[in-house]
Amino acid sequence: MPKRKTSAVWDYFEDIKVDDRRVWRCVLCKETRDFKGNTSNLWSHLANSKDDQHIEAHHSIKDKCQPPRKITKKTDNRPARLLDIDTDVENENSEIAEDGVMLPAFASTSAASISCETYELGHMPYSISSLKLKGFFLALGLYISRAMQPLSLVEEKNFREFVLHIDPRLTIPCRNTMTHTILPNLYREAKAKLVKELEGIKQVALTTDCWTSINNEGYMTVTVHYLSDKLKMVSRVLNTIMIEESHTAVNLAKELRKIVTEWNLMNKISAVVTDNAANIVKAVSDINNWRHVPCFAHTLSLAVKDAVLKNKDFKTILTNCRDIVTYFHQSNLATIKLHALSTGEKSKLQQDVS
């Protein structure tokens, strides 16, 4: 028994066989083509035709499958963040559909489309230019960046099944599209907004720090701090760069000037906060001639370490405490026995930061 056709597009097509080949035939223009297993090419036939009958048929089916959504003005009064899905778009008067999709957005993808002929909200995959798909791409990009998820998430089988269970008409972008299109677009949009915001700021402070990754790669991050027009403290990371040269004062000063120039902040710096390392202090105060402010937390840490080293008795006690914590961290049986002897809420022993 042939499968019942539930898609409304079949109102304008016939499913026939020609020379043992399954083909469809348009009842409007009698054109026939091979049937590919889904209704995508049927929809395309109606959508791409300039004939009035085809255009009217296409609009009629779209109205059946996807009734118009109610549009409401956004009323959320939360503080705006860079690239908030409901605030940070090119059109400041953006609107949000009741299903949470931001209407003005961007994105593009080359991933294969997904079709579902029996889904209750519609039959066709969203077109690449649809507001729904653009909103999905934006939300996915924000989720990956804000939650620090791996880009491989979009290729993970269970995640893809989860998304398609919510709406089978969605096209999930591939990892390459996320890397080279969606996330770069998000970054450019966030940067443009921050540049515009910083244009109205007269004074800023910078913090910067250098570190080495587990792969033995040197990095430096620069963060800007300023008061908004509503007198709220705002902190934004300007850049995190790999330092491929020696961490000399000259090289660090050069990289700092490059970042500050890129963001047009050269004449707005009131102070730069760093740790007490000699190279970064010289780069800030001696070479770039900026006001240097030592990091209070780092200064306090140095003072405590110095006091511990000079007090032999306290140093011995601290060493013994570290050894005890290390022992329990390395022994599962000892930890179980400790919990059995403990009363009240169980908590993991914490090692201090040396």
UniProtKB/TrEMBL annotation:
InterPro entries: RNaseH-like_sf (IPR012337), Znf_BED (IPR003656), ZnF_BED_domain_contain (IPR052035), Znf_C2H2_sf (IPR036236). GO terms for cellular component: nucleus. One of its GO terms (biological process) is post-embryonic development. Residues 4-61 form the BED-type domain. Coiled coil: none annotated. Keywords: Metal-binding, Nucleus, Transcription, Transcription regulation, Zinc, Zinc-finger. Transmembrane segments: none annotated. The keyword Methyltransferase does not apply. Pfam families: zf-BED. It comes from the Eukaryota. The keyword Phosphoprotein does not apply. GO terms for molecular function: DNA binding; zinc ion binding. It is found in: Nucleus. Its main location: nucleus. Signal peptide: none annotated. This is BED-type domain-containing protein. It comes from Daphnia magna.
